[in-house]
Amino acid sequence: MTDPAGNNRVLCAGIDLNPAIDAQGGNALDIASELKRSCVEGGGSVTIPRHIKKDLQTVAKILNINWVERGIEGDARLICSRGAVCPRKPSCYEGCQEDASQTLGDIV
Predict the structure, then answer these.
(1) Tens digit of pLDDT for each residue in 41-70?
(2) What is the pTM of this model?
(3) 17 near 68, Cβ under 8 Å?
(4) How far apart are CA 50 and CA 10, in angstroms?
């Protein structure tokens, strides 16, 4: 989304899709872990694997959340709320390529 000054902004609606994914027979934690691993291996972003995209699309249709359907058409990107100074052990960006991790720190 773009603010009135033309700056890109991230808007969070605070919707937890995990219960809906689990209710449809998926495993939300496994999906998140696989997607994170894929992003790290891809240097910070990756095309969403077809089987994950299918699970997310099913939930988006059931909950009638159009922006989720639109969002899964793009790449998944690893974003840590603390940016490049991620305090987690292991770090969100551990394993990302050197040049990609510098760019990712500026996303949030």
Answers:
(1) 888 889 999 999 999 999 999 999 888 899
(2) 0.65
(3) yes
(4) 25
